């Protein structure tokens, strides 16, 4: 019996444990921190051996295969020991993909991947296909494969998960964009991060597809120098294309295999140029999967968007409160500020991942009337933006941040939580940050 060791007892770890057990592995789960009670219950019910609060190396270095949580960096000493011992260390998507015959649509990118994944899942469901969204969202991919294998998966995939693949190859890969993010994990080299994102296509064949943003110079330059085997299908909002998807005169046009589909963007519920791109990417994938044009139109027009991504919370005294907690990098916040059509009080801050805020300067000058820094260490934000706005205040509490925003805002203004940073200094994760923000707004 082969021994599968799982490092990390979170969503991906527990899903992998269930699938590993089902596939006949001897499974051991080890977590350096504490495993949550809901996950412990699953391990106990499935009679899977586990430990938390530290790693017992002797029980790990005898593995035949190791699945590590995406949160554990490759340079962690234990991972280095495993690699030196010749033990294969893979990610959950690699493990799960080995045990399903489903059609996989893999979606990656610095921004827009959650919205595109949710849109893709919505399109598949509306088309009546047995399908779910998994990967970085919802239940883990491995858990689905183990307990209720689907015919189609829309998988949101991070660069960390792609770092742990060997044979993983989605039939359709979508690359939404690439901007500097997580550089702390890539030796502060942007090209390492780009290479990581492109791993989504590295095992694809001529029968597979890579859908990508042709307006993104990082992607087009990389593709010019590192061609892929899959069929490349671009999308653009700035130029007319002979193949792929493009936007013109408030219409999306999709041209694939001599068939054309046109739809108006006027009725799209999700607004902004970036969402037009997300819609084009998902619709193009749907066309490749032969989903009917009418179904695509209806699905895109009925899609409500994603929680914590430019989510309208409430209007209080004619001030709109907007939750964009999912904006954990500068580029995501750029989209958010760019879509503001009224003076904005901006709540920003958290764990800075080596952010360069210069791209935001024109938008801050144009749209932002006050900045509230919400983080344990706000020095960089204060140094960067102090001269640009009349009011810049720092706080370590979301409740206080919302109260200050209430005082700073006037009739017709927006209050925008778009942190441009990770959330781990004051919150469990960006969802927790978003929920606490909404709670604080409702309590005003």
TrEMBL record:
InterPro entries: Mur-like_cat_sf (IPR036565), Mur_ligase_C (IPR004101), Mur_ligase_C_dom_sf (IPR036615), Mur_ligase_cen (IPR013221), MurD (IPR005762)
Reactions it catalyzes: UDP-N-acetyl-alpha-D-muramoyl-L-alanine + D-glutamate + ATP = UDP-N-acetyl-alpha-D-muramoyl-L-alanyl-D-glutamate + ADP + phosphate + H(+)
Cellular component terms per the entry's GO annotation: cytoplasm
EC number: 6.3.2.9
Pfam family, one: Mur_ligase_M
Pathway: Cell wall biogenesis; peptidoglycan biosynthesis
Similarity comment: family membership: Belongs to the MurCDEF family.
Name used for this protein in its record: UDP-N-acetylmuramoylalanine--D-glutamate ligase
Organism expressing this protein natively: Leeuwenhoekiella blandensis (strain CECT 7118 / CCUG 51940 / KCTC 22103 / MED217) (Flavobacterium sp. (strain MED217))
């Amino acid at each position: 019996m082969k021994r599968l060791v799982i490092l990390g007892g979170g969503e991906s770890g527990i899903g992998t444990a269930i699938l590993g057990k089902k596939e006949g592995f001897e499974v051991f789960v080890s977590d350096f921190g504490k495993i949550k009670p809901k996950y412990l219950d699953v391990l106990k019910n499935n009679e899977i051996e586990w430990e938390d609060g530290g790693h017992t190396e002797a029980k790990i270095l005898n593995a035949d295969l190791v699945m590590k949580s995406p949160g554990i960096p490759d340079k962690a000493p234990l991972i280095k020991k495993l690699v030196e011992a010749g033990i294969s260390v893979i990610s959950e998507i690699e493990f799960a993909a080995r045990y399903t015959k489903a059609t996989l649509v893999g979606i990656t990118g610095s921004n827009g991947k959650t919205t595109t994944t949710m849109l893709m899942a919505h399109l598949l469901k509306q088309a009546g296909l047995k399908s779910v969204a998994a990967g970085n969202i919802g239940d883990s991919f491995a858990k689905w494969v183990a307990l209720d294998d689907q015919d189609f998966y829309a998988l949101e995939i991070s660069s960390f998960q792609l770092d742990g693949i060997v044979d993983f190859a989605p039939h359709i890969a979508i690359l939404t964009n690439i901007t500097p993010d997580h550089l702390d994990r890539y030796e502060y080299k942007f090209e390492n991060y780009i290479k990581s994102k492109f791993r989504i296509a590295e095992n694809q064949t001529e029968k597979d597809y890579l859908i990508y943003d042709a307006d993104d110079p990082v992607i087009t330059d990389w593709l010019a120098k590192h061609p892929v085997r899959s069929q490349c299908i671009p999308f653009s909002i700035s130029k007319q294309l002979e193949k792929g998807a493009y936007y013109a005169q408030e219409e999306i046009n999709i041209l694939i295999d001599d068939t054309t589909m046109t739809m108006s963007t006027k009725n799209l519920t999700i607004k902004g140029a970036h969402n037009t791109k997300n819609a084009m990417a998902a619709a193009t994938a749907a066309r490749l999967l032969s989903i009917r044009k009418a179904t695509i139109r209806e699905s895109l027009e009925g899609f409500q968007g994603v929680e914590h991504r430019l989510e309208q919370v409430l209007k209080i005294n004619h001030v709109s409160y907007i939750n964009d907690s999912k904006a954990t990098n500068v580029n995501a916040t750029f989209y958010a500020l760019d879509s503001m059509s009224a003076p904005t009080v901006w709540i920003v801050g958290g764990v800075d991942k080596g952010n360069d805020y210069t791209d935001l300067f024109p938008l801050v000058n144009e749209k932002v009337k006050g900045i509230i820094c919400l983080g344990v260490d706000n020095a960089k934000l204060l140094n960067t933006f102090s001269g640009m706005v009349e009011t810049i205040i720092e706080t370590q509490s979301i409740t206080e941040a919302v109260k200050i925003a209430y005082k700073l805002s006037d009739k017709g203004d927006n209050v925008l939580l778009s942190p441009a940073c990770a959330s781990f200094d004051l919150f469990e994760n960006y969802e927790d940050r978003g929920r606490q923000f909404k709670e604080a707004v409702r309590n005003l």
